[in-house]
């Protein structure tokens, strides 16, 4: 019999996964999996559980938000296992799941895992720590985690934009130097993101045509610090209209490896979780590092997993 390890964060989001847990395990059992469950109780638990136990299983299922998924992915990679990962998004933002078109319906997401196919996916490294979809700093880094829930419900995506834009005038410019395979970028910035996703914290939304989550490249966005109201207006218009390439206050490019020199006291977030800064930062794309289960008719995954290794699977 096949074996599945379920790693669940019982405190994720609105705790809706807890209410459906019997149904989740029933679906896995009926699909032929002997199911073992482990719960996380604190930061790092997901990594430790996956690192020490994933090699003994045929499938690892993560139930939680993007932060929990980040931990599980790190643990699987550290274990050296090639076990496929199933992700049931149950957090408050679920940017990563949205990029892959994973169902927000708990039961459907479970069915997609047991009836789906494994596809390969790039994973990032930030010095010695992994991230699944984004490493960011500055203005919008914490926005999706500070917007009140009732405002999210009322205004949706606009709520994130308004919250982030409101903070721009008060943000201290952050000086850094970014070097990649083709050039050097430097100056004062209010925001930066290195992502492998179409969505970043609910603020930045990229066209699916610009993103392939298995091509060995990140999409990088840097927003310069505005010096006057005109430059601030340019940034605001570009954010609300999604015209990042056309804005002179923004640098948008693709890259597989980045070397960053920055203030060591400048905080970052990796997949929405706090990451201390460093004077020297190496960000590397680990191509096709993990296998993740997606539904066979997942059109969104087809859009962002276009490389040869995944062709014909969906």
Automatic annotation (TrEMBL):
The UniProt entry, under PROSITE patterns, shows: DAGK (PS50146)
Q: Tell me its family.
A: Belongs to the diacylglycerol/lipid kinase family.
Q: Which molecular function terms from Gene Ontology are attached? A: ATP binding; ATP-dependent diacylglycerol kinase activity; metal ion binding
Under the heading InterPro entries, the entry gives:
ATP-NAD_kinase_N, Diacylglycerol/lipid_kinase, Diacylglycerol_kinase_cat_dom, Lipid_Phosphate_FormReg, NAD/diacylglycerol_kinase_sf, YegS/DAGK_C
Q: Name a single GO cellular component.
A: plasma membrane
Q: Which Pfam families match?
A: DAGK_cat, YegS_C
What's the protein here called?
A: YegS/Rv2252/BmrU family lipid kinase
Asked whether the UniProt record includes Kinase among its keywords, one would answer: yes
Species lineage, top-down?
Bacteria, Bacillati, Bacillota, Clostridia, Peptostreptococcales
